[in-house]
Fold these 4 entries.
Entry 1:
Amino acid sequence: MDTDAQLAERDRSSTPDAGEERSRSSRFPGGSRFPGGSARRAGPLRAAWRWAADGGPLRRACALLLVCLVFLVLTSSFLIQPFLIPSGSMENTLRVGDRVLVNKLAYRFGDEPRRGDVVVFDGTDSFVQDRPAENPVTSLIRKGASSVGLMSPAPTDYIKRVVGIGGDRVTCCDRQGRLMVNGRPVTEDYLYPGDAPSRVPFDIVVPEGKLWVMGDHRSASRDSRDHLGEPGGGTVPLERVVGRADWIGWPFARIGSLRRSSAFAGVPEPHGPAHG
């Protein structure tokens, strides 16, 4: 028997096994032949964490700031968004420079705006017929800054008080100069001192799925009354409502909640006896 030949054959057969061992080890942690391979396997979040943790104080501070900004943007997109008041149309309830916190979940689960609510809405196709052109870079900066209340909102965003809901008949005015909803006079205690409910008479039945909105400072507000002759008749579709303004978050001296006005408590339902 040729033992040397047998040993040589064993030596040759061990060569693919060794190569097989090397290929298997390259698929497990610690055996990667590529720099940073373990970081790629760990996933982007762990890689980002290692990038921040292995850096200096400046890198960690930048990472923390980025995380905070992402959190704020997500919160303002889906939960609560700060809204900078750009005009005096809602005085004295809201003043120029106030930051209100808009509850975006207020109408997400079957509830709808009620009379007396202060709402933020997109006025496209109701208050604004042609969306104004805006530079993409400027638009991106404004969206980011307005989402945290540092800049004015989009030019198509408005904040007004709901006066009529779908089916309501809103008229102005009775002999005492009061607004009437479904035949019932409304004493609007939130109006700007010295303002009349409206200097322009109107009579409107709000279509279903729409809202009739007005500013509290009637003489300084462009609201549903100013768009009666336009497509939509000045009414705002429910799907355009961004949310309900529930709190004033700034300035510090004005922090507090915005409660629904009780001025409409006695108004009957749209198809009640007083509607005709």
Entry 2:
Amino acid sequence: MNLTVIGYWGGYPKKNAASSGYLLEHKEFKLLIDCGSGVLAKLQNVIQPEELDAVILSHYHPDHNADIGVLQHARLIQGFLGKEQPTLPVYGHTFDQPEFGKLTYKTITKGIAYNPDVPLTVGPFKISFLKTNHPVPCYAMRIEADGKTLVYTADSSFKEEFIEFSRQADVLLCECNFYGNQNGKSAGHMNSIEAGQFAQKAEVKQLILTHLPHYGNLEELMTEASGQFSGIIKLADEFLAISL
């Protein structure tokens, strides 16, 4: 599996950047995980919108789904220009029916409901879900293919269930919206120390801190997390590429 970070800011995209969006590729299958504000513009530096095979959404906050509409129009326009493409499946939960309904657009995209209690197969990927602690229904994902595992926390404060859910993952893509001296529980987010402790207990191989805050020295997040985690640790960055 190959992971490319497209956007990594929490809440809204910083200037000339993007909020949450991650491209996961395996055996030529291209899966976009979340599609936040600015993601479509940045994605085109890596692949074109019509090259996507599927999209999956953790939840319906705009920093994770705002660019679904422009993705739909990009594929629509490419169709007008003569590029034949199949209907793009966009996977999401059904606990917000108005938002889920927006995932289907003409024959361009089709919203497909995932059942978070049952593993989902998307192309070469097996995806399991864990409900997170967040103000709206949101699901973390454990994505497996050919013996490799990526865990994406999506948005959440820390919960003990994360440890077994992420056990021995090759990469833990962990939200880190707060510094170590801050408590993000009421907002439904983790801080850097919690992320490091979680990664250590889950025995993951590599920790990537993402969904980052817009203020402070981001290097401090990594320093704080590395005080808890003995493995490889990185800050998410635009077009950061990781091979699992």
Entry 3:
Amino acid sequence: MSASSQPAFPQTALQWLLTPPDGAIPAAPRLLAFGRSAAPLVGALDESVRVVACDTSRAGVRTLLNRFRRALPVVAQAAHLPFAPKSFDVVAVHQSLHALPEDSLASIARVLTPTGHLAVSYIVRDDSVPWVRRLGALLRDVDPEAMAGAYGTESVERLSHSPFFTDVVERRHRLWVPISRVNLLDMVARRFPDLESDRLGQLMASVGNLYESSARVPEPLLLPYQVSSWKAVVNHAAVSSTLADADPGLPIRL
């Protein structure tokens, strides 16, 4: 499925990610949202959260600001965050932990408060639902790699082996997103823009029949998603041992 078909970030998952291990959310938590892919998460925040929108490019920062205009914009690399130590209660990374360099975890840990945590999340499609499995079979008949389901969640294993984080906990939230017949056909057509017209017509007819046999008219089909969320508590004992050798860059105090 394309990224455009993904749903809004659910409040239940957001609240769990923001809640520190001791269960007491600060009155005005300081959150660093890293990466443009965190835009859905940032867009679900309320005005009480003090947000820094950070990406490696100006375009990425603008994407975040479009979802939370009161955020402080910063262009930086995850491995070289230009903030003073202990600046944030939460660092949020959505859909992109797998894309961060290995040394990013040390940089993230450095800018967290001693009671802070890293919040990692991925929204992934749940292919266990029968009609979704049948759709996958139709698409893989055209492209064996279609709906392969490689989301990057395996990168969370890095947290378990990192000296900078402890007590990694996970929670999953189910999410159902309505999709109409027209939107499903459009999504399939966009997946195969170069497919010859005859073959595309056959595929679209098969997908249309699948929709009609699976939906309970007039209700739309429901695309099943799962919000996989992790929290990892910062280990400042490990962080302190590296601060003397760290490049302080241009410290930004919040």
Entry 4:
Amino acid sequence: MDIRSTEAKDWMLLKKVRLTALLDTPTAFGVSYQTAANYSDEQWKERASSAGTEFWLAITEDKTVGMIGAVVSGANRYNLIGMWVEPTARGSGVATQLVEAVKSRAIGKGHDRVFLDVSPDNAKASNFYLKQGFSFIDEWEPLESHPHIMVQTMLWTIQN
């Protein structure tokens, strides 16, 4: 298993896995499939080049089986975003490796916390993040792509 940060040349891999993720679990992400499908090739190249948002891919046997992203918010919060693992690779440790990549990058950039948003109704994801040392905090907001779904913020701190 290779977990690696994307570069501009990886834009087609990122596009494919991101669109697959959005089709697989559309209510788990802040962007809709239609919005992402309409990104230009240049927008995908920019996303893959880690300009602003950083992405990592999980690649095994020349197949991309997962992705994760991270972005620093205007409030200087290091946010884990866009986590997805293909169904056949779930339970294999790929997700844990992806989360560890984000935690390591956060620490490397001087952050001692990582935030994420998840619907508490998504028990599988919530339980996974709890096992990774995240805990729920009392912050809620509507999911941008599906405003009827409320997501709650989870927090991991380096002290965990």
